Amino acid sequence: MEDLPKGLAASDAGKIAEKLGSISAGKVLDVGTARGGFIDTLIKTLKAYDSFVGIDYCPSGESREDMESAEKRFEGKAVQFLQMNAENLRFEDESFDTVCISHALHHLAGINMVVTEMKRVLKKGGNFILQEVYCDGEQTEAQKADELEHEWEARIDSLLGITHNKTLTAQEISDIANGLKLSEIEIFDSTHPVDCLFCEKKHQCEDPRNQATFHEAIKDIDDGIKRIENHPDLQTRMRLTEEGKKVKEAIAKSGASPASYLFVIGKK
Ligand SMILES: C[S@@+](CC[C@H](N)C(=O)[O-])C[C@H]1O[C@@H](n2cnc3c(N)ncnc32)[C@H](O)[C@@H]1O
Q: How much distance in Å is there from the Cα of 253 to the middle of ligand 1?
């Protein structure tokens, strides 16, 4: 393995990649796939797979564009994308060998309905994979600033009618995972996601003030303000714009690093 930056090397990302590298995943369903980012990570890490189906309900024009770009990204690979609400999956019982959901739980209106549906379409003995950022615990100042930005962005989405809840706590995510009654369940708690292992900017990102994430967080705030600039609720728009400026100040002070997350894997 190449020389990894300290923070990434100390995280559980390597252990998670190792675990994924032991799995022959068969036919895989990725729920809330957006641009298929998690499918990309799985293709790079799994021991083997047959095919992927990525589903997303695409509530906005932006998310339909995400799906179109995902289709282009995986052209020629055994990856298919479908527009579908995960609360009511249009698949037979036990039709997938692996089901997964990445960074999408806090975007769901009905978490329990979705995970129950995912379990229904999973074969007995199949793999359930879940990864989700959490908001509490021992986060660095840079992670806390990023979380502030994320919460602010969730309020922008909510104003525009898109479900985006506050990030869950680690306990809430564990409760959801344990409620699935999976066997051989393993929970990893990592400061870095697995995809950081493959990222060209991983060395830059070690410094939260001089990194891609920092500039991305500032850009996300500018983009968020643009997204609501024509919204008729002037008062909320002005409040969110002011709060956006404060979040920018917090990021300028501490930098920004993605929040820690839980990675859960178990069998039905
Ligand atoms: C942050 S994105 C997920 C990112 C992606 N999984 C990854 O790891 O790169 C959350 C996605 O969940 C989708 N989503 C929310 N509720 C959904 C539902 N009921 N059915 C399907 N997709 C849903 C949203 O449209 C959004 O694209």
A: 31
